[in-house]
Structure formats: C-alpha cells, structure tokens
C-alpha cells in the first residue's frame, strides 16, 4: 500500500516535469519519449554545456546548432586547461577579451557596431539654415549710400584742402614784392632762425603771415580765412548763407604815433555787429546818420565816429575813391587809440580799467575767381593810412573833446566800481591794523600795549557814535 502511494507520487512529479519540459522535448527529436530520458542523456559531466541566448546575437532555433556550439565550447575549455598547465605560454589578449563566456554581460564593441550597422543605419539630414546675406544688390542700398557719402566726403576734403592752399599761395606770391618793400622781415614764425619764410598753415582753412620791421608800427599780422571747402557740412550751410574768403590785417601801431580818436567804417551788417562787441566803439563812438552825404562814402557803408574832425581827415578824397571803386571787396576799416578787445562782462572784483593800445585793423573780401591782383590796391591803402596817421594832428578843440570823452569813460568806470573799491580799501585798512596789533603785542612793553588798546577803544567808540551835522548859527 505504501509502495503504491509512492509510485503515484512519482508519476505525478514526472508528469509535471514533462509538462514543463515539453517545449525542449518537442524541439529535439533525439530525446527518447520516456520518463527518465532527461536523466539518461546527461550522465556524463563532459557532455553538459549551458547555452545562453545573447541579447545581441541571433537566437538558435534548431537543435542542430547546439552540438556545434558545444564542440566549440569544449575545444575552448580544453585549450584553457592546456594553457593553465603550460606556464610558458601566454594567451593572446585580443582572443581573451573576445571570449563571450569569460565576461558575462560584456558586449564586444566590434560585434555591437556591426549589429547596430545592420539593424539601424544612421540617416544624415542637413538642416535648412536661412541665408543671412541677401543675393540682390538692391538689398544693400543703405550700405552703398553710406559708402558713397564717405567717398564724397574724402574727395571733397582733399579737393577743398588743395584749393584753399592754392588760393593762399597765389595771394602771397602776388603781394610778396609789396610786403618786402614795406617790411624788413616777412613771414616770421617766432623762431630764432627763420626756417620757412612764408605763410604759416594754422588749419586747412586758416593761414597766417607775420611781418615786422617798419616805422610807426610794431608788427602786422595777416590772416587768410578761407571758406571751409574741406568740410561738406560747411559747404551745405554756405548754400543757405553765402560766405566769402576774407583777409584780416591787424597792425599794432606804436604809442604816440596817432592822435586820440576812434573811427570805424564798414558794411551795415558788420557795423551793427562790432558796435556791440568792442568796448572802444560802444564807449566812444556814435553812428553817423547819412554818411554818404556828410563824408561821401558809397551807399551800403556805415560810419562810427568819435571826433567828426578826425573822421573827415581820414575819409579824404583818395580814400573815398578807393572805397567807391573797390566797395565789393571792403568789409571794414577800424582805427582806434583805445582798443581793449571785446566788451568784458561786469565783474565787481575788477578795480582797474583794461589796458588799451592803438591799432589799425582792416578786413577785405577776396575775389571769388581767385584774381588776387584785384585786391592789391586795398593793401596799398593800408600803408597809405599808416603814413596818414603818423602825420595827421587834430585841432585844439578836437583834442579837448577827445580828452573829455576819456575822462567821462573813466568816471563811469569809477562809479561802477565804487562799492568794490570801498570794500577793497576797508580790507586793506583792516589788514594794516591787524599787522600793527601783532607788532605791538610782540614787544615786551606793557605801557605801549595799554596805550594802543586805549587808542583802539576810542576809535571803536567814535565809529559807533551817531553822526551829527554841525550847523553854524549867526549871532544877532
């Protein structure tokens, strides 16, 4: 009874084992269909080989491939055993790392690359990048406009610079002989050895020339102020407000050469401008009404005069003829013995009148066509006026009037600076008293110090006392 129960239990276990191993049994037709076939086939340890499926390699679907792998595995194991027995032979490293059974879970890089290449080939896609630069020339109109503007600016710069230099040299060459006849030194550059005897270039539109070595004057400065032809902006502004090349002549006369008077003649626009800018004209001169009738000056010119007698002497027949003939080139003529520069702003600390000097200034317009011979007679007029000022003397009445004008200007200045001068005088007295006190206190004489203190107290009491006016009363 006991044996029957054991037999049934063994049969059930075998049936369950057969159900679990049925796929392997159906795949291999060489196994026999009995209950103990699985134990009979694996009696020898050398015939057992565990076959693992690789995640990457192909799966074995037939039973014929198992013996082949088994034989290879046995041969490899046998070679390893032989290598272990032989100490003098070293296994190849490449073969060692290619062994799949030695490193479980280690994927061969060559095999993986081949499998990946076979399974999925990478597809290269070129990204569509938008073009940053346009292909049409009309798309660069802003850049082309800027380049064209720069080209025009540089071309105009070099052309205007060359033209101004050409006009200045032409003027100098035309007047060189006249200047050499009237001055010993022409073209002084302020150095001990005059290296460059000619015009001095201050800028692209300004040239200067200094001349010295003549009686009745300390020197003459000639300034050639050209139109800024090298500047496109100035040329554009000149279209709305026309400009002209000008020459300014500034002569510092020797003191005592000319009489005391102030005179100015020029265009109406220039007269209106300088009358407000220069202190000698605003303080001493008045504008002459109808100068074309009184002094026969041409229409379009105005006259500022201090002494009518001196104005009539300057505007004589020769000068009037020259002004009439060359009126288009004349800008102004300025003669003064009280020239002190532009009008200074009122300053309370100014306690002294500005220094004055006698001058002869002139401004002429240069011809537009560049014919410098046309303005040469005006330069001769300047030298004539210098000789005229040296020899002319006013009458007694004219000198007295000029003296009264200068006293009036001085009184006006003293009145305007009275408060400042009083404050400065009080400050000087206080400083003097402070120095005296320090000197007395430094001495070792108590009696002298006491007397000085009593004197100071009396002075302070007198200063604080109310001021009373004394009246004289006649006795009956």
Structure description:
The protein has 476 residues and is of the alpha+beta class. It is 49% helix and 13% strand. The chain has 17 helices and 10 strands. The chain has helices at residues 2-20, 22-27, 37-40, 65-85, 93-97, 109-119, 141-182, 232-240, 268-277, 279-284, 291-294, 308-314, 317-325, 376-391, 396-416, 418-442, 446-464; strands at residues 185-186, 200-203, 206-212, 217-225, 246-253, 262-267, 286-287, 301-305, 330-339, 357-365. Strands 1, 2, 3, 4, 5, 6, 7, 8, 9 and 10 form a 10-stranded antiparallel β-sheet that branches. The longest helix is centred in the middle third of the chain and has 42 residues, at 141-182.
Comma- or semicolon-separated keywords:
alpha+beta, 10 strands, ten-stranded antiparallel beta sheet, 17 helices, CCDC47, calcium ion binding, transmembrane helix, membrane, signal, 13% strand, 476 residues
């Amino acid at each position: 009874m006991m044996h029957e129960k054991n037999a049934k239990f063994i049969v059930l276990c075998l049936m369950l084992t057969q159900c679990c191993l049925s796929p392997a049994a159906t795949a291999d037709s060489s196994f026999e269909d009995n209950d103990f076939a699985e134990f009979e086939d694996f009696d020898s340890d050398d015939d057992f080989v565990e076959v693992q499926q690789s995640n990457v390699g192909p799966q074995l679907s037939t039973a014929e491939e198992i013996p082949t792998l088994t034989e290879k595995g046995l041969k490899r194991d046998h070679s390893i055993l032989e290598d272990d027995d032989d100490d003098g032979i070293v296994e190849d490293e490449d073969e060692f790392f290619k062994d799949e059974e030695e490193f479980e879970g280690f994927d061969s890089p060559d095999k993986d690359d081949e499998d990946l290449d076979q399974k999925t080939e990478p597809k290269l896609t070129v990204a569509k990048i938008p073009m940053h630069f346009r292909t049409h020339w009309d798309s660069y109109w802003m850049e082309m406009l800027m380049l064209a503007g720069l080209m025009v600016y540089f071309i105009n710069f070099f052309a205007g610079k060359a033209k101004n230099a050409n006009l200045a040299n032409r003027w100098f060459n035309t007047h060189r002989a006249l200047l050499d006849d009237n001055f010993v030194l022409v073209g002084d550059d302020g150095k001990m050895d005059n290296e460059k005897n000619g015009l001095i270039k201050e800028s692209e539109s300004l040239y200067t020339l200094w001349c010295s070595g003549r009686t009745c004057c300390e020197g003459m400065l000639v300034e050639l102020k050209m139109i800024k032809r090298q500047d496109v902006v100035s040329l554009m502004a000149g279209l709305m407000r026309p400009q002209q090349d000008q020459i300014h002549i500034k002569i510092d006369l020797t003191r005592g050469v000319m009489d005391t008077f102030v005179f100015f003649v020029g265009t109406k626009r220039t007269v209106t401008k300088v009358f407000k800018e220069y202190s000698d004209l605003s303080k001493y001169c008045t504008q002459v009404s109808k100068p074309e009738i009184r002094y026969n000056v041409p229409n379009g010119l105005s006259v500022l005069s201090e002494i009518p007698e001196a104005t009539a002497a300057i505007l004589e027949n020769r000068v009037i003829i020259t002004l009439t003939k060359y009126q288009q080139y004349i800008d102004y003529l300025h003669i003064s013995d009280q020239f002190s520069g532009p009008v200074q702003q009122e300053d309370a600390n100014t306690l002294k009148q500005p220094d004055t000097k006698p001058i002869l200034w002139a401004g002429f317009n240069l011809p537009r066509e560049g014919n410098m011979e046309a303005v040469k007679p005006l330069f001769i007029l300047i030298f004539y006026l210098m000789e005229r000022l040296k020899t002319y003397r006013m009458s007694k009445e004219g000198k007295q009037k000029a003296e009264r004008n200068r006293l009036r200007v001085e009184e006006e200045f003293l009145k305007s600076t009275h408060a400042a001068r009083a404050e400065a005088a009080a400050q000087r007295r206080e400083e003097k008293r402070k120095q005296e006190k320090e000197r007395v206190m430094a001495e070792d004489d108590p009696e002298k110090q006491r007397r000085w203190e009593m004197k100071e107290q009396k002075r302070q009491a007198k200063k604080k006392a109310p001021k009373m006016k004394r009246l004289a009363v006649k006795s009956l």
